[in-house]
Amino acid sequence: MRNSQGYSQLFGPGLDGLKDPGLAALQKDKEADTFTCGHCNCVTHVPANTDAANIGGLCKVCMAFVCPKCASLGICSPFEKQLELQLTREYRMREYV
Questions:
Q1: What is the domain count for the chain?
Q2: Model pLDDT for residues 9-40, shown as the tens digit of each residue
Q3: Which residues have C-beta within 8 Å of that of residue 52, sequence separation ≥ 6?
Q4: What number of other Cβ atoms are within 10 A of residue 66's Cβ?
Q5: Parallel/antiparallel/unpaired status of strands 30-36 and 43-46
Q6: Maximum CA pair distance of the chain?
Q7: Whole domain around residue 55: which residue ranges?
Q8: Whether the predicted model's global pTM rises above the 0.90 cut
């Protein structure tokens, strides 16, 4: 199984002369820790000094980090298991043809 934790560097577009403070935040380069959700395979950026419960959680069934969207579902459906089921279905459908 691959390591699902990482580190990312986000680079702003380098827009000069922005007056809007919301868009000015895009200019700054940012660095953040990341993890890949074990259920939906999306990358989640972890802000510094945050509580673990606020960034999703840990699935106790498959022992993988999960994003907040998947944590709220409350069911365990690992991404790799979903891929295996799709491939199995595809192979069986090819046998019928």
A1: 1
A2: 666 555 555 455 554 555 566 777 888 899 99
A3: 58
A4: 25
A5: antiparallel
A6: 62
A7: 5-96
A8: no
